[in-house]
Amino acid sequence: MLTDLISLPGGSFTMGSDRHYPEERPAHRRAVEPFAVERHPVTTAQFAAFVEDTGYVTVAEESIDPADFPRADPAELVPGSLVFTPTDGPVDLRDWQQWWRWQPGASWRDPGGGVPVDERADHPVVHIAYRDAAAYADWARRRLPTEAEWEYAARGGAAGLDFAWGDELRPDGLDMANTWKGRFPYDNQGWGSTSPVGTYPPNGFGLVDMIGNVWERCVDVYVPRHVVPGTPAVEADGRPDLLAPTTSPRVMRVTKGGSHICAPEYCRRYRPAARSAQSDDSATSHLGFRCVI
């Protein structure tokens, strides 16, 4: 069964932020047309239904062409994906390779992270490359959101707030989203992995998990600052368009919302305005999606 849709009226809102990371700038007015968005990210069970119906094979499950990695040992070029792995203690937070490892065989079917896939039916599906998300959306007769649509939905109708629920990450000590709670990347006093969709309160539009749990894919090609309507466009990957009609691994697209490994001392991207870049072929244990129409 597909996720139920929540219709949003569209309108004008302040997109981005001038108070946090440089790539969120400039804050500016942006308009979106009415649209409908899935109440929660696509779950493992829903993606399994898509695969059963179509026989689809995800990027993480595909064989790797040795010609693409001429210096690598062919014996090591096996299907797999990146899995977050907590460290034993404090590490240099400038080196992401301290807590990410390549796991042969990791995919949506075997996501790693300590929670068996048979216990993840109602968790967001992970290890999803852009092509995988687009294929599901096409099967569901839906589409992936633009960054503006996603951010408008994530704000839940609130304006001028760092978070959709206010200006504090944990108001009155309450956890509002599945983000890192403790010392990163070795002491997580929260879930430590994905959580079932809807574990945390909905935003003002009734949408859940717009913040935390998993990063969510958008169609926009990533550029290092917002392109404000009415100003000269910034070219992305050699093209002036922001919705490049390609799934080339070299293309970097916007992801939004942060994930369960976003931590105050490392990644404060658990906010509607926050944004990050992921290549089209990236498939990790904290990367998922939701659809719109």
Tell me the strand percentage band. Answer: 15-25%
> CATH class, please?
Alpha Beta
In CATH, the homologous superfamily goes by the name paralog of FGE (formylglycine-generating enzyme)
What's the total count of β strands?
12
Kindly provide the radius of gyration, computed on alpha-carbon positions and rounded to a whole number of angstroms. Answer: 18 Å
N-end to C-end Cα span: 16 Å
Helix percent reads 10-25%
Q: Count the DSSP helices.
A: 3
Mean pLDDT: 91
* Main beta-sheet annotation: 4 strands, mixed
Q: How many domains would you count in the coordinates? A: 1
- Overall 3D shape: globular
Low-confidence stretches: 234-247
Short summary:
The protein has 293 residues and is an alpha+beta fold. The chain is built from 3 helices and 12 strands, in the order ββββαββααββββββ. The radius of gyration is 18 Å and the shape is globular.
Q: Keywords, please?
A:
paralog of FGE (formylglycine-generating enzyme), 3 helices, globular, 4-stranded mixed sheet, 12 strands, 17% strand, two-stranded antiparallel ribbon
